[in-house]
Amino acid sequence: MAPLAQPVSNLIDAFSRLPGIGPKSASRLAYFLLRSDEEIALTLATALQDLKAGTLFCGLCHNIADKDPCAICDNEQRDRSIICVVEEPLDVQAIERTGSYQGLYHVLHGAISPVEGIGPDDLKLRELLGRLQPGDQAGYGETRELLVATNPNLEGEATAMYIARLIKPLGVRVTRLARGLPTGGDLEYADEMTLSSALAGRLEM
Predict the structure, then answer these.
(1) Which residues contact 123 (CB under 8 A, 6 or more apart)?
(2) Architecture of domain 6-53
(3) What is the pTM of this model?
(4) Which CATH class is domain 64-204?
(5) What span, in angstroms and rounded, lies between the C-alpha atoms of 170 and 180?
(6) Strand pairing partners for 147?
(7) Could you tell me which residues come within 8 angstroms of residue 85 by beta carbon, excluding any fewer than 6 positions away?
(8) What is the gyration radius of the CA atoms in the chain, in angstroms?
(9) 75-127 pLDDT per residue, tens
């Protein structure tokens, strides 16, 4: 078999490192770009460069943003008495699409998973505690409710229980999304109606 041209081989290797993309899918993507108009490949290359150069993490909620603080944290119309805790930035987008939540967010960037070696210290929990202190958040006001919206799977439930035990002594109300969400699923894949119902029927923890 003739060896692949090095640029093609390099691109296949790069695609293979992405989650959910195996060798065959990586090869298909590489050959698609090779055969397509040059504009498509150049647009993709520019978007990838802009992704790293033009994004950062909000210093308050740790969501992906293009400025600090992010547009949500900087919006004075948001309800600053409630913080919704999610695992990943994609979960913020899922909840925002419902239009049913007008509070602030806190992104943990993961969930507790002993199997994968992820513990509480690997998440943005210390930063969350800091936001719950009276007078913090640059005068944004004291948080009265923490809505835990981690995924309804084993890791998400373990993380939610840990947060509840951590936060309750502070006197902040801790609630959990209602069980309208399927157990074992990911928040980002839930439809807007299911998420809206879960937000409306959140439960005390």
Answers:
(1) 108, 109, 110, 111, 112, 159
(2) Orthogonal Bundle (1.10)
(3) 0.77
(4) alpha beta
(5) 28
(6) 84, 175
(7) 105, 106, 108, 128, 146, 147, 148, 149, 150, 163
(8) 20
(9) 999 999 999 999 999 999 999 999 999 999 999 999 999 999 999 999 999 99
